[in-house]
Design a protein that fits this description.
- The protein is mainly alpha-helical.
- The chain is built from 5 helices and no strands.
- The two termini are 22 Å apart.
Length: 76
């Protein structure tokens, strides 16, 4: 439900459009999205993997991925 529910799909599209306004390049958009979703900067390894994912699957799918991270769902 968190991955494919139409509400989550709509929010991922909305978040992706917000990120497009945050930065002109994909790497900057990924960093901004990760920071907003988790409250921290991605490590170099995370950044490399997430940019590759966003490049292959699109920014909206990257946002869906963020919404399903344990750091986003659970509060420690």
């Amino acid at each position: 439900s968190l991955l494919n529910h139409r509400f989550n799909l709509a929010m991922a599209e909305y978040f992706a459009s917000r990120l497009e306004g945050e930065s002109a390049d994909l790497a900057g958009q990924v960093i901004a999205g990760f920071r907003l979703a988790t409250g921290r900067q991605p490590t170099a390894s995370e950044q490399m993997q997430l940019v590759a994912y966003a490049r292959e699957h699109g920014l909206a799918n990257f946002c869906r991925l963020l919404f399903n991270l344990s750091e986003f769902i659970f509060l420690d």
